[in-house]
Amino acid sequence: MWLNQSCLEGEIEMWLNQSCLKIDTASVLEEDCSLSETFFKRTATDEQCIEMYKHMVQGRIFDGIALKFQRQGKIKTYPPIRGQEAAQVGSAYALTSNDWIYPSYRDIAASFVHGMPIDKFFCYTMGKMAGQHLTDLSIFPIQIVIGAQFLHAVGGAWASKYKGEDSVSVAYMGDGGTSEGDFHEALNFAGVYKLPVVFFIQNNQWAISNPIHKQTASQTIAQKALAYGITGIRVDGNDVLAVYEATKLAIEKAKNGEPVLIEAVTFRQGPHTTADDPTKYRDQAEVEQWLTNDPIERMKKFIVSTGLWNERQEEELLKDCEEIVLKAYEKALTIEKTTIPKVLRATYETMPQNLVRQMQQRGGV
Predict the structure, then answer these.
(1) Which of 281, 348, 357, 362 is catalytic?
(2) Are 170 and 98 in contact (CB under 8 A)?
(3) In this model, does residue 10 exceed pLDDT 60?
């Protein structure tokens, strides 16, 4: 189930190639949504299963409303998360408040699970600095530069190890980010210095218009861990229980000086951002196929079949989530807008004199 360098031991072939590797995709829920323990033993309680499901639904409700708000001009460019709720919720739910997450722009549901107020993200989409002020949470600022958050997570994990803290750093990235140099540098440092860090890749099949088969020639992303002396695992990213169990075990390994690369296999159901039109490059048949494995429907079938959930609860949840999201948006509207002088003051401890003069000329000091 886990990929590490022992997977290559005992080979008598002179050449190493992908045929040396057998890589399974770990899951907990079968295709019919029944429980399987082929890879993991389910440790999540009934209450935790329900809580994770609620987080997933809230993420989707938020996503739908945010998408409409962007089209109405109420917020700026938005990166939809639809289809990736299980990967984000399952991984973040396995963390404690001491653990740090390093999100990219799409890791919205993970940030919500880890404590980010919804109004903060709305502020972020409005260009308000309040959206990035998370001083009371273990959440690094949202990273737009592809791959840079992996280096930040390595630095954070290194600091935690140096201080003797009981915490793990978890960095999120899409499959496209694995082609960036930052990805490889981060894994290399983590492996050499045995840092308490988990690298979480959401392989959603498309990096904007670039499909995964053009992103890498390796049969999986998880196997890239082997080159850096760390552990890798490939998990069904549409199975929230599998993601939760895999992340829990990865955290244990990371705390013992064994960094882990997780590849969560999932699918971006919508556009890359609201500035994108996926119908220009993606076959609708592929989308329809993945929709049959929708992560929320999959979990819902499981909790309904086990008597943990019913339609009355579903209706109440949908209503409550919509109300929470709309109230968060209204709260974000009351937050003051960010001015250029405010940005500069937050950037510099000591303001350069040329900027001081410019601000004075504009009446900004």
Answers:
(1) 281
(2) no
(3) no
- Which two tokens mark 278? 């996926």
Q: Out of 55, 82, 272, 298, which one is annotated catalytic?
A: 272
Q: Which residue from 269, 129, 100 is spatially nearest to 198, judged by alpha carbons?
A: 100
Coil/strand/helix, residue 177: helix
β-strand partners of 210: 207
Residue that wins the pLDDT comparison between 189 and 40: 189
Amino acid of residue 161 = K
Question: Is 152 tagged catalytic?
Answer: no
Q: Which of 171, 59, 155, 65 is nearest to 116 (CA)?
A: 59
The CA-based diameter of the chain, rounded to the nearest angstrom, is: 74
Tell whether the model's pLDDT for residue 49 goes beyond 80. Answer: yes
Q: What's the rounded Cα separation, in Å, for the pair 272 and 275?
A: 8
Mean pLDDT of the chain: 94
pLDDT, tens digit, 9 for 90 and up, residues 296-330:
999 999 999 999 999 999 999 999 999 999 999 99
| 272 noted as active-site residue | yes
DSSP H stretches of helix in the chain: 46-71, 85-93, 108-113, 118-125, 148-163, 181-193, 212-215, 240-255, 284-291, 295-305, 311-333, 340-347, 353-361
Tokens representing 14 are 């002179």
pLDDT digits (tens, 9 = 90+) for 228-273: 999 999 999 999 999 999 999 999 999 999 999 999 999 999 999 9
Amino acid at 142: I
Taking each continuous run of H as one helix and of E as one strand, the counts in the chain are 13, 7
Which residues on neighbouring strands pair with residue 306, listed in sequence order? none
Is 329 one of the catalytic residues? no
Residue from 55, 82, 152, 268 carrying the catalytic annotation? 268
pTM of the predicted model, to two decimals? Answer: 0.94
Per cent of the chain over pLDDT 90 is 82
Note the pLDDT of residue 262.
98
Amino acid residing at 45 = T
In sequence order, which residues have a C-beta less than 8 Å from that of residue 86 and are 6 or more positions away? Answer: 56, 237, 238, 239, 240, 243, 266, 295, 296, 298, 299
> How far apart (Å, rounded) are the C-alpha atoms in residues 113 and 111?
5
